[in-house]
């Protein structure tokens, strides 16, 4: 999978598709720092974005990242305009999003999870298994949660995922439909 790091401009293009990179998950101290849950790989790559767009309700609002760092097993960040714990508390559970065009281009054999979610999944024999609901990491490999006539957990590995066709919105897998 491609990671989600890159540089971005201060303003997204109009009509941008937003991609979620993480969320504000807690408060850290009394000076406006927030705890950050990152979906990027590696997790600290979210700190490479100089502007974060926070979405709670409605349109995302831009915040410049003043500084951020790894803290224990997580990340903490300080955003411009957030000076104390009360202001930081207003951002709790906000999604950190960026415009799709600001993500680095994925290599030919790499995909962003956001691009895979919603794709149809069929076996190489043409049996419809459903659609990718979401993906998660296991440590050994990524796993697609495919919802159709039943929910299936399908490893996103080379021996199982035969082709990914973003244009056709289709993933072909070598997978037993009874499993």
Provide a descriptive summary of the structure in words:
By secondary structure, this protein is mainly β. It folds into two domains: 18-101, Elongation Factor Tu (Ef-tu), domain 3 (Beta Barrel), CATH 2.40.30.60; 113-173, SH3 type barrels (Roll), CATH 2.30.30.240. The chain has helices at 85-89, 113-116; strands at 18-28, 33-38, 51-55, 61-71, 74-79, 95-99, 120-123, 128-137, 142-147, 151-156, 161-165, 170-173. A hairpin with a 4-residue loop joins strand 8 (128-137) and strand 9 (142-147). It is elongated and about 60 Å long.
List the helices and strands and how they pair.
Blueprint: E1 18-28, E2 33-38, E3 51-55, E4 61-71, E5 74-79, H1 85-89, E6 95-99, H2 113-116, E7 120-123, E8 128-137, E9 142-147, E10 151-156, E11 161-165, E12 170-173
Parallel strand pairs: 7-12
Antiparallel strand pairs: 1-2, 1-6, 2-5, 3-4, 3-6, 4-5, 7-8, 8-9, 9-10, 11-12
């Amino acid at each position: 999978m491609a990671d989600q790091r890159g540089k971005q401009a201060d303003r997204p293009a109009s009509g941008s598709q937003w991609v979620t990179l993480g969320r504000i998950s807690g408060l850290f101290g009394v000076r406006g720092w927030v705890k950050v849950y990152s979906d990027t790989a590696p997790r600290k790559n979210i700190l490479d974005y100089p502007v974060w767009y926070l979405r709670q309700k409605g349109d995302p609002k831009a915040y410049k990242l003043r500084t951020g760092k790894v803290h224990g097993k997580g990340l903490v960040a300080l955003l411009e305009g957030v000076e104390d714990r009360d202001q930081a508390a207003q951002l709790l559970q906000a999604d950190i999003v960026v415009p799709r065009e600001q993500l680095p281009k994925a290599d030919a054999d790499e995909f962003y999870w956001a691009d895979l979610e919603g794709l149809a999944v069929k076996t190489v024999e043409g049996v419809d298994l459903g659609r990718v609901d979401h993906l998660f990491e296991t440590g050994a490999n990524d796993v697609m949660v495919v919802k159709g006539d039943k929910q299936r957990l399908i490893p996103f590995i080379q021996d199982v995922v035969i082709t990914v066709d973003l244009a056709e919105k289709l993933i072909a897998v070598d997978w037993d439909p009874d499993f």
